[in-house]
Amino acid sequence: MIRVQSLNKTFRVAQRQAGLAEAVKALFSREYSTIQALKDVSFSIQEGEMVGYIGPNGAGKSTTIKIMCGILHPDSGTCEINGRIPWRDRKNHVATIGVVFGQRSQLWWDVPVIDSFKLLKDIYGVGEQVYRRNLDELVELLGISELLVKPTRSLSLGQRMRCELAASLLHQPRILFLDEPTIGLDAVSKIAVRQFMKKLNQERGTTVILTTHDMQDIEVLAERIILIGRGQILLDGSLSELKRRSTALKTITMEYRGDVPRLGPGMKLVDSREGRLVLELDPAMCSASEAISALAAQVEVLDLSISGVSAEEMVASLYQEYKI
Amino acid sequence: MGLYFNFFSMHLKSQMEYKTSFFFTIVGQFTVSFTSLLGVWFLFERFHEVEGFTFPQVLLCFATVLMSFSLAECFGRAFDQFPRMLANGEFDRVLVRPQGVIRQVLMAKIDFTRLGRLTQAVLVFGYALPRSGVLWTWDKVCTLVLMVVCGSLVFFCLFLIYAAISFFTLEGLEFMNILTDGGREFGRYPFSIYGEGILKFLTYVVPLALFQYYPLLYLVGREASLRYMLAPLGGLVFAVPAYALWRLGLRNYVSTGS
Amino acid sequence: MMKYLALFRIRFSNSLQYRAAAAAGMVTQFAWGFMEIFAFRAFYRANPSAFPMEFSQVASYIWIQQAFLAIFMVWFYENEIFEAISNGAIAYELVRPMDLYNRWFAQSVANRMARAILRSLPILLVACLVPPPLRISLPASGLQFALFSLSFFLSLGVVVAYTMIVYVITFFTLSPVGIRIIAAMLADFLAGAILPLPFFPDRARAVAELLPFAAMQNMPLRIYTGHISGVEALGGIGLQVFWFMVLLLLGRLMMKRALRKVVVQGG
């Protein structure tokens, strides 16, 4: 149970100027600017939820996560996680959470993965039995058994991320914070990571909070989205609801044999090549079934797909809407 | 404690993997303090004595400081390199783990390459101990042990202060080197050489003289009072302001972020 | 040429940005200078007749040394160059239309001068204001100053030429960090960084004077302090020119071979 209420946080940043004259000035006086990273941020997350926390860079995502992890104090406001205040009760709080930072590893670099796991086991005080059981389960789920004896530095990014996930779950945390977990991963690894997280949430009921720029992650995982922009919570709702709110345009992709078909009203050409056509359909002017019949009447349809607006497009238009 | 031992063996294993690099860093370290030693030796070939101390007696000083410093560096290396830990986010990782902060930082790095200096200190002790004219009764031996042990702790506190300051600013840390590297380099002679003002500073403000100079007086027999023998223990008080500064820095870090 | 002026300006303004670092660095050097002079004073008091230089000369030696540390000391390596070597960026260097040796040489010179200029002025100022006998003394004549300047820049050349050889060796052998520390420490010691050469025992000194390192900080510092003057100074400068040429040639030859190896083996 995470309850965040009216969090505020400002940072002071020293101004650095370019140029020689400015540099000399800087020797004697320093200017500071204040940035309000968080402004009256509030939300609640129930146990077992999977939440996508999105927003452009600098919006305040990592600041919020740091506060929830207990490594940053807010200027004002409250945050209560499972009955504890993260930064007041650090050791007890962090024992119940797992954190994966996309770009920084928690595994020791020159040491075999399994040794890192053993060190973590000691750090978190996990009992031998629990550790064994957990480890076997995680290794199987993530498919990392051959990787265990390899040092972290020899792993590819995808392999490392899978080991990171295992590492963060060895102590069976109730809440898992993921900061850009799929960044830089190849397609296969991304799918593996997403499937694992879905399973984790469904089978173990682990609360997952995920920040990401990859909208596919959101698509697959998050039923709930919290959008933050310039320090403020702009949206907090379910993914499907948000999609419905956004533009209702559909995309039709068709492979065909024959001459290029004529497009009727409500259909806008996006891309056309030899035997392949992508168009944008406005359902208000022409329904999907009408459009398909019209096209099928002109050409021999080999393959056809219709998709609603993607999460990527929805988020892009949201950013535009909120000017963030 | 078991946890520390696990980290100890992990660091040892991982450093031993880079055998050539490991070896050459040790040799490099050895060379650095060796040139320092050469300087002292050459001077004493010419002068034979300074402030009433002979060459072997000065070597006792030299080796004590060298040994204390290398021990502090070996075990407290993570504090010496703390700015890096802050910059690359490793420290945030420390805060997210349910163990004491200082404990974790200590375990983050144990630098075995510092053995280069340690070896040299041992060799210098080997040369100086029999030639220093000191009668090695149990109290003198105790004094020497105290000098090295408390010396390591004082140097460690200096590293702690260095790390604490890096919470506030990453610039301007360089001046701490005067006390750490400086302490080691200037400590190659008994601190009385640098004049009374410096000696007072190194007694009351940064207690390097408490483990390097006053006990030395006791060892060579110039002072017989127990106060001089036990002076190194006074250096332990330094841990109080060092720790306080660390706590202050930590509090500053968690309220202003990085 | 304009490129190096620009590089110089950037580095200089960069160092100004970090004002606390600049101040701290300065304080460090003051402390070092004072402590070294105090130590020498204690030895002087112990036995003035055994002192091979006048005490005032030692004080000047140390102040000039501290003021221009970045120019005199070998250990101010260019980390960028080491990184370029270790991460293979050297391949890119070969594609550039500039001679690599010249490029690195000029870069080292520009960097060292930029660093030195910032630190030297305050240090020299304080060195002038400190009460004697710790005070720095000014050169006795215009000629001496001219000789010093010549020797100063020659020593910069010798030091950089030496570091170039270290870079090329690192390149050849992909050697670990320890090697460059050893190379720097030995060079600096034999150049009189830790103890001026006149203080060396006679035999050690004779050996040191024959080595290229005596052409580094040893020469300009002793010319400045007046320990070496007149014909002897000219002779010393001649020696510097000699070693500069030798190290330069050696470095260029080694680099040519090293680069050929890269091209042949494909990195």
Which features would summarize this protein structure in a list?
A: six-stranded mixed beta sheet, four-stranded antiparallel beta sheet, globular, B: 258 residues, mainly alpha, 16 helices
Walk me through the topology.
The complex is a heterotrimer of chains A (324), B (258) and C (267).
Chain A lengths: L1 E13 L5 H7 L5 E14 L4 E5 L6 H9 L6 E6 L8 H5 L2 E5 L11 H12 L3 H15 L14 H13 L5 E5 L7 H18 L2 E5 L3 H7 L2 E6 L2 E7 H7 L4 E8 L9 E7 L2 E6 L6 H11 L1 E8 L3 H12 L2
Parallel strand pairs in A: 3-7, 3-8, 5-6, 6-7
Antiparallel strand pairs in A: 1-2, 1-4, 8-9, 10-12, 10-13, 11-12
Chain B lengths: L1 H16 L1 H29 L1 E2 L2 E2 H26 L1 H6 L2 H6 L5 H8 L6 H17 L6 H31 L7 H4 L1 H6 L9 H9 L3 H5 L1 H6 L6 H4 L1 H4 L4 H18 L2
Antiparallel strand pairs in B: 1-2
Helix pairs in contact in B: 2-7, 3-6, 3-7, 3-8, 8-16
Chain C lengths: L1 H16 L1 H28 L8 H13 L1 H4 L6 H8 L3 H6 L4 H30 L12 H32 L3 H14 L11 H9 L7 H7 L5 H36 L2
Task: Describe this entry's structure for a reader.
By secondary structure, chain A is α/β, with parallel strands linked by helices. In chain A, 36% of the residues lie in helices and 29% in strands. In chain A, a hairpin with a 2-residue loop joins β11 and β12. Chain B is built from 16 helices and 2 strands. Chain C is mostly helical and 267 residues long. In chain C, α2 packs antiparallel against α3. Chain C is globular, with a radius of gyration of 19 Å. Classes of the chains: A alpha/beta (324), B mainly alpha (258), C mainly alpha (267). At the B-C interface, α2 and β1 of B face α2 and α9 of C.
Main sheet characteristics of chain C? none
* Helix run count of chain C: 12
Succession of helices and strands of chain C: HHHHHHHHHHHH
The computed structural class of chain C is mainly alpha
Average of per-residue pLDDT values of chain A: 85
> How many distinct beta strands of chain A?
13
* Helicity of chain A, as a percent range: 25-40%
Oligomer: heterotrimer
Annotation, overall tally of beta strands of chain C: 0
Strand content of chain C: under 5%
Distance between the termini of chain C: 30 Å
Helix content of chain C: over 70%
- What ranges of chain A have pLDDT less than 50 throughout 5 or more consecutive residues? none
Low-confidence stretches of chain C are: none
Order of helices and strands of chain A: EHEEHEHEHHHEHEHEEHEEEHEH
Helix/sheet category of chain A: alpha/beta
Largest sheet data of chain A: 6 strands, mixed
Most extensive interface, residues per chain? Answer: B-C, 40 and 38 residues
Distance between the termini of chain A: 29 Å
> What would the principal axes of the Cα set say about the shape of chain A?
globular
